[in-house]
Structure formats: structure tokens, C-alpha cells
Automatic annotation (TrEMBL):
Domain Alpha-glycerophosphate oxidase C-terminal: 478-550
PROSITE patterns: FAD_G3PDH_1, FAD_G3PDH_2
Pfam family, one: DAO_C
Signal peptide: 1-24
Principal place of residence: mitochondrion
One MF term in the entry's GO annotations: glycerol-3-phosphate dehydrogenase (quinone) activity
One GO term of the biological process aspect: glycerol-3-phosphate metabolic process
Functional pathway: Polyol metabolism; glycerol degradation via glycerol kinase pathway; glycerone phosphate from sn-glycerol 3-phosphate (anaerobic route): step 1/1
Official protein name in the record: Glycerol-3-phosphate dehydrogenase
InterPro entries in the record: DAO_C (IPR031656), DAO_C_sf (IPR038299), FAD-dep_OxRdtase (IPR006076), FAD/NAD-bd_sf (IPR036188), G3P_DH_FAD-dep (IPR000447)
Amino acid sequence: MAAWRLRRAGAALAASSAVAVALAASSASASDPSAAALDAARQRVAQQGAAPPPRDAQLAALAGSTPAEPLDVLVVGGGATGCGAALDAATRGLRVGLVEREDFSSGTSSRSTKLIHGGVRYLEKAVFNLDYGQLKLVFHALKERKQVIENAPHLCHALPCMTPCFNWFEVVYYWFGLKFYDLVAGRRLLHLSRYYSVDESVELFPTLAKNGHDRSLRGTVVYYDGQMNDSRLNVGLACTAAVVGAAVLNYAEVVSLIKDDSGERIIGARICDTLSGKEFETFAKVVINAAGPFCDSVRKMANSNVVPMICPSSGVHIVLPDYYSPERMGLIVPKTKDGRVVFMLPWLGRTVAGTTDSSTAITMLPEPHEDEIQFILDAISDYLNVQVRRSDVLSAWSGIRPLAMDPSAKNTESISRDHVVFEDYPGLITITGGKWTTYRSMAEDAVNAAVRSGNLKPANGCVTTNAPISNYFLYLRSRNEGLGKRLAHGYPFLEAEVAYCARHEYCESAVDFVARRCRLAFLDTDAAGRALPRIVEILASEHKWDKTRKKVELQKGREFLETFKSSKNAQFSDGKHNGKT
């Protein structure tokens, strides 16, 4: 964990350097408004001590809009795409608001695979099905992968991923396939893929099994994709959007959409500040619906007869101790014996493994089923030389993927991993589908559609391709406040971070911190539970909570952590992987 702390500090310094280099390299001129806007955004983000406006100021900005002086854009949804859209629109010089009914990244965007990837599987489909559409998806994702890493180097990095081969056909097949992946990436390549012998592979990944299940390892092919801290990146997007002028507000639920007098166009939303219970109206020329799995609920506020767009899919992941995988090498099996993909990746000092892909109902707090956890454990045990035990599971969670279907399509074959931008009611732009890797371009498409719909007059075009995401933790100081202790043994998170997030990152609850400002709930559910009382105490001091509120926060935190199925709160259906020898 100490090494992780050093890497974390080094990444933060790299982020600061990246911003400085970007500023030095900029050559904006008055005749190029987009370059000038990018320069201005970079300067505001890079300014030492820069922090988003307080929550009260953001609420006042939203409530202060009127039919005569509306916002240009109101974004509904504080996930990756929604916050990306707010940042995009704000850097175009538009008046922007964003509301999220829970916390930023409280849904799908915090429960991803943590990979920033181009889509090796999509490339395989493109080749074998001669599908140019799939190939375009890969080209596009590889372009965005590089940009995400460059814009947020303190939260994203390249990760080598090892693919085991158990016969010589697989060696040739994966070698050629991944070389083609390199070729498609072109100048956006992270690093070249290469073949490693059996001995080299085991040296790089010591827990990889050489033999077993009537097969012998013939070597591995290692290629590179990206990895991120997803919710920290999402919160960074929200805060960066606020710094450049967007009014972003979490715990603000849209209760209804406002239509013009003729009832023919959406002109705003009625919003409930769920922290105070008070309602207010926000007016905007265009509303962007970026509510992820819940986007159909927003669409039904405009028209109760709309055709649903979302086909929800569940993805379950588990977290294991660090010895399951080496510090800087992942393991990805593109096709297991039942045809699924399984992976093990180092992440924040632990190992994340997954995943499943099954239909599910849409809920606020999805929970993994025990059979899904067992599937992942069974799948990875086929490739390891260590005993895989259910008692080693430190955390397990489920996320809902909002697979999208274009409502204008004639059949359901249009369901895909690509995104859909659609205006099925004037003034309401819906953006859904896609994946984390392409959030920036999805946001760009949504804002472009909003500009067309509302006949908006942005000062410049999209500049987010090269817009850095700031890391405000660079400027974290304890200031002798007695907040220098760690929150949990073996983890680097400090008490001072709780206070900082409450002051500068819109951290309004214990769950906000333990799940999305630090990642303790995802890394080690039991450690998160032990840290909860101290987190509540610090937040109570920052937000002036009374005893009743502190008790409520502690209870909500414990209920939230119960949805993360660590070995401690697991319900075993049989004796598999239960630690028995």
C-alpha cells in the first residue's frame, strides 16, 4: 500500500506537470475562439487552489433562472456522460446547469470494470462478420481511450493485459489479432503487444497456472489498454465543469418537466433539493437527459407513451487481495469454456475480477447474486495456481449497463454497446448507451444536438478533446486540524480527505465519501464499515449535523455497505469457495 501511495502522489505531480505543459504548448490566438476558450479553461483548471463554488451558490444559480432568462442547457444526470456534457457546454461559453438526484457517479459510472478500452471483442466481430460498423466503434474508442488518459493522467494509466494461450493455434490467433488491435490504434497506440514464453509469463504473473484441466500453457500475448479510478474521474469532471462556470448540483431530483404554454416544447424542470426538501424551477432552452439506466423515466415525464430505449444488463465484479495478481499486470481471458470473458486486474492495491453480463431490473442499488460471485470465482480458478476462496472476497458489487435501442429503429437488432442521441420531444435531448471510454464524445454529440435543437449560439466549438481534468487533491492540506490519521488500517485514505471533500467536492453524506470520493467500499467493505463512524463525525463537523442526522447517516452507510457482498455478509448457498480446505 505504501507503493500505491507513492504512485498516487507521483500521478498527481504528473497531472500538474501535464497541465503546465499544456499551458506552455498552447498557442491560441484571438482569431481562433476555440483555442482561446481551451486556453482559458486550462488556466482556470490549473490555477492553484481553484475549487468549485459552494453548493448553496450552485443551487441559487439554478433556481435563479427564469423563462425570460433561461439557462442554455440543463443536464439531468450526474454520471460520466452528464458531467462530460456540462463541461463541454460550459467550455463553449453556454450557460449550463446540471442536476443529479443522488450523488455524482452514484450509479453505473462508479460500478464499471475500471477499464478504458478500445474493444478487442468488437474488433473480432468486425473482422469475422465483415462489420464496418463494429470497426468504426473500435477506431472511435481507441481514439477516446488515448484522450481520457492524457486528460486525466492522475486518475488513468496504461495497463498491460496478459492473454493466456493453451495451444499453438491460440498463440498465433491472439498474436495476430492483438497486432491488428495495435495497427488500428495507430498513433494512439499505448504500447506494442508481444508474445511471452511460458517461463516469461509465469515470471510476470506468478499465480498463472502452467498446467491443469488437461491443458498446458504455451505462452501468453500481452497487449495494453487503459485503467481508471472511475468515480474519482466522474467527480473530477463535475468539479471541473463547476470551475469553468457550470452550476452542478447533486441531491437534486427532477420531479417533472416544464412545457411551454402550447405544451409543444420542454423549457425546464421542477426540481426537489432532497437535502432540504424544498422545490424550485429551473428554466432552460434545452434539457439533456443523461440519466443512464433511468433515462426512460425522464422521457416519460414528457410523454407517457414513449417507446423504451433501455435494455438493462447487469455486470458483477469482485475484489480480492493483491496477491491474486501482480502489481502492474492484468489477466484477460477473451473466451472461457462457456464463451464468456473473464479478467483479473490490479486496481488501487487490490485485485478486481469479473464480470457477468445478464439481463436485470433497474434499481437504485443493484446487488450481486451469490451465483454470479461463484461464477467469477470458478472462472478465474481455472487459470490460477492458488486456491480461490469465497472468504477472500473483500467486496462485490453489481452495476447496470444501459444498453440502448434507437426508438426509431424497426427491430431490436439495433441494441448495441454504441450510444444513441435522440430528440423524441422538442427541447428534450436523450443520450444513452455507449461506455465509459467514449463518455467525452458522447457528451459532445449530446451538446451538438442541444445546440441544433435550441438554436443556441456557443462562443466556440467543442474543446474537451484536450481539456485537462483537474486534481484538486494536489492542494489538500491538513492545516494542523488534527486530521492526519488514516481512516482504515492498510489503506492510504486520510481523515483530512473527508473534510476536503465536504468543503470542495460536494460530499454530502458518508456514502458519498466511502464509495465515490475514496473507494473504500469497493476495495474492502469491512474496512469501510469500520471507518464509517469517524467519517460521520468529520462530516458532522463540516456540515453541522445534529445527533439525529449523525445516527441516520451511520445507518444509511451500513445499509449501503450491505449491498456489497464481501465474505463477511455473504449468504452461502453451498460449500464452494468458503475457505474450507
